[in-house]
Design brief:
Length: 249
Amino acid sequence: MSGHSKWSTIKHKKARTDSQRSKAWTKVVRELIIAARDGGGDPEFNATLRMAVQKAKACNMPKENIERAIKRGSGGADGINYETLTYEGYGAGGVAIIVDVLTDNKNRTVAEVRNIFSKNNGTLGEAGCVSWQFVRKGQISISAEGLNEDDVMMAALEAGADDVELVDDTFQITCEVPALFIVYKALEAAGFTLESSELTRIPQNTIEVDERTAARVMKLYGVLEDNDDVQNVYTNADFSEEILASLMD
């Protein structure tokens, strides 16, 4: 399993708890508001909103909550002015960390992110210090229950995906960013149950870390994700299955 797939596994396992689901709803609502504000409230003509709606459905957000958020965004979001920002830095062992945020107060958020890095064996860096180590990709997750890997692989590749990987009980499908919605719709039409669809950052190279360093990186990763302004966290840290199992217990 690749390092990136490990982090995806961690993210999906955490998202299954009630507390994490509630936090995910808060973050997705912001995405829905911004997408509707910037591109209109019709998902058919707004690809960003379409993806945000898919994410909301994947975390079991009620339909009325989704519609309410879209309406807020289409109507100006009650004067709330969110900004999309990216911060970069280093965690324990020199691993690269990228943090995507959506905030209505840039000064507050950068102070909080810097504080989180400094208190968790990390350092907030300058723009561009680690982003060159990652590539943007589309990623779709499908429950593997009852599915044949060859069938999923064939359907995904025919739809335009680049790769399919079985991680625990989930197929993770990656594709180029422009192909994400096309692949999603093709797999949906083929009858597969899609758990999530999102844009992600995949490290071109990973850094293998020992158990002590992995624990520190995991703590930084978790504290960042718990911040309400943080939408996504990416890292090039990699560690063994044994270390992952011990940290997830």
